[in-house]
Amino acid sequence: MATEFRPLSSEEIARLTEQGCSCADWSKVEVAEGFDPAKVKSTHFCGYIKLGVFEKDVSFFGGVTKPAGISNATIHNCTIGDNVYINQIRNYIANYIIEDDVVIDNIDLLAVEGESSFGNGTEVAVVNEAGGREIPIYDNLSAHTAYIIAFYRHRPKVIENLQKMIAHYTVSVTSSTGLVAKGAKLINCRIIKNVKVGPLSLIEGINRLENGSINSRPEGPVYIGPGVFAEDFIFCSDSKITDGTIICKCFVGQGTELAKQYSAENSVFFANCGGFHGEACAIFAGPYTVTHHKSTLLIAGLFSFLNAGSGTNQSNHMYKLGPTHQGVVERGSKTASDSYMLWPAKVGAFTVVMGRHYRNSDTSDLPFSYLIEHEDESILVPGVNLRSVGTIRDARKWPRRDRRKSPKKLDYINFRLLSPYTIQKMLNGCQLLEKLKTTSGKNTEYYTYNNVRIKNSSLDRGIKFYKMSIDKFLGNCLIKRIENKQLENVDELRTVLQPETNIGPGKWVDLAGLFAPEQAVQKLLFDIENESIRTLDDLTETFRSIHSRYEVYEWAWTANVLQQRLSKMIDKITADDIIELTTRWKKAVVELDNALFADAKKEFAATVQIGYGLDGDETTRHSDFAAVRGLFEEDSFVSEIEHHITSKTALGDELISRMEKFRQQ
Fold first, then answer.
1. What is the structure's pLDDT at 418?
2. Relative to the CA of 405, which of 75, 118, 270, 645 has its CA 20 to 30 Å away?
């Protein structure tokens, strides 16, 4: 955009007037050197105006090109950059800076009135619809900042200081002038009021946008498509909102897509969420929360890495003191078609919810379970999801489905399936299941825990799956720690196994995608309270540091658990201890992989082939199925499992062989 402007000459004013342009005071109109009045037609100017140079052709969909310039418009108090195309403005454009190469074609209204923060500072009432967990949204809000604001209300000084930081940022972006940044396109739109538009945004066919920021970036443009209504919003880079979606008081994170008449209010969606057909009300949608179906309502809950089935819904209203109830569905869970949960409830990580659940349950210490309805009872099958190929497939697909192209990623996401966060829950789960068995008796058919019932056989199997997964995780960490290290003796082994930090042991938390030791989170909260963390940039850097040190913290946690298991400190560990742990790891890996192998095989059973080979016999059905789905032996996932068993067995054998040499020293 030109930095120097000059007054119009009398000849230029005359030419503009001849071409149907008008202005009450031409002295308030300035132009850049090289301005050609021939490119401006049938336009009324008012207020202070600055115009750039229009000398290029502009490309449109379908290969159409038109010369840059302004026509058929009313422009009030605007600065317009070089090679902008503006045409068919049915009402007016007012109080905007319009940067170079912008296209504004066939719109009703684009205007800012008074001072606007463009959605920044809007309070979004998440999780508890009656209030009390409001998040003031802003341009660079991360899932982790939002999590602390929503769920650490018991630390009022933390909340107060974070609110001050966000209020300070909001003031810094408040202006009476809007922005349409370089290369943005606004085509066939209706009403746009108090909206900031980022570079290369494509906005077409919308009905109304009001009080919001579209934080598009050149590397990650934002698309807003036909029929969208949005007010009090912030849309981040790489997001897509289209197909009649209705938004009110929402934050839409990087790579998130909302489409097909989706409706959302008082909700926050973080990285790579997807909302289609259904409805969201007062939800905290952590990364990868996805709902694809009509009649699916997510309300008053915390979710992340969720896949919500058709007809999924929850109740947060007991018709007493209002919609005050809330729910938590921990990461990686799925809801089957027509599943229902009565809030308040808490669902453990990577749980599959099937049926309708009318009792307030808490299964957070029993992750990787099935929660099933049977005769109006909630039946829990602990740990069974650890053998599901779907669980493993989900964990592998999430990183591949990251739509964030912007180099500045707001959310720090840890995709690990097994981590101190989930393994700690399994350790707790083993203890509580064994305690249930001890207190209720071994011959009890069903055990009751937090309003769910657990069958005797399911309890035993759950303990088995948890113990195998714990052994697998501990062995993974141990082998990764020793792998590729040239060790000559046990003393060198002990040195390598020493943690680099004392932060890590104890409880871990999931800050909406970011795994962190509770000790690190408590330090962060203390630093916010005493103002060691004074700015939003400081806060972001702290989250980045915690995320980058995950493996350091993970080993500190693992080393502590190993010490407890072996009843000895790391500096007393022996080669025999490593051999024992590695042997248990090998056994766990092979057993879990064999369970996955068996689960995958079900997808190729005869019953799955029903509907194939419609007009033929059984041979035709098998051939049709093989042509469409492939053969079991050739399936890539099956091959991966087989390779995993072989490679991990070899890795374990190699480590045991190395340790055998230490025993002989």
1. 95
2. 118
What does the pLDDT read at residue 533?
97
DSSP state of 378: E
Q: Which two tokens stand for residue 371?
A: 């929660």
pLDDT digits (tens, 9 = 90+) for 306-331: 999 999 999 887 667 668 899 999 99
- Under the phi-then-psi rule, with left for phi > 0, alpha for psi from -120 to 50, and beta for the rest, what region is 390? alpha
Domain boundaries, the chain: 1-111, 490-573, 576-663
CA distances from 198 to 83, 156, 219 (A): 17, 35, 11
Closest by CA to 144, choosing from 518, 550, 422, 544, is 544
Q: pLDDT category, 441, cuts 50, 70, 90? A: confident
Identify residue 593 by its one-letter amino acid code. D
| Residue type at 131 in one-letter notation | G
Q: Name the residue among 311, 254, 306, 257 with its Cα closest to residue 283.
A: 306
Lowest mean pLDDT among 329-333, 412-416, 483-487, 495-499: 483-487
What is the model's pTM? 0.95
Q: Which residue has the tokens 């050609």?
A: 36
Reported confidence tier of residue 664, pLDDT bands at 50, 70, 90: low
C-alpha to C-alpha distance for 29 and 73, rounded to whole angstroms: 15
Say which DSSP state 399 is in: H
Q: Name the strand (E) or helix (H) holding 403.
A: none
Show contacts of 596-600: CB within 8 Å, 24+ apart. 596/387, 596/388, 596/389, 596/392, 596/641, 597/638, 597/641, 597/642, 598/387, 599/387, 599/388, 599/389, 600/389, 600/632, 600/635, 600/637, 600/638, 600/641
Q: Is 238 helix (H, G, I), strand (E, B) or coil?
A: coil
How far is residue 78's CA from residue 97's CA, in Å, rounded to a whole number?
6
How does DSSP assign 286-340, residue by residue? -TT-EE-STT-EEESEEESS-EEPTT-EEE---SSS-S---EEE-TT-EE-TT-E
Ramachandran angles phi, psi of 549, nearest 5°: -95, 15
To which H or E segment does residue 440 belong? helix 420-440
Burial class (CB in 10 A: 0-12, 13-18, 19+), 590: middle
CA 588 to chain centre: 31
- Please calculate the CA angle 253-255-261 and round it to the nearest 5 degrees: 80
Find all residues with CB under 8 Å of 282, minimum gap 6, and list them.
Answer: 125, 126, 127, 128, 129, 265, 266, 267, 299, 300, 316
- Encoding tokens for residue 311? 């007809």
Query: What tokens does 272 get?
Result: 């790579």
CA pair distance 23, 345, nearest whole angstrom: 64
Phi, psi values for residue 134, rounded to 5°: -60, 135
Nearest-angstrom CA–CA distance, 18 and 572: 94
Whole-Å CA distances, 520 to 302, 412, 502, 538: 22, 15, 10, 15
For residue 204, what are the contacts with CB-CB under 8 A and spacing of at least 6?
185, 186, 187, 188, 189, 224, 225, 226
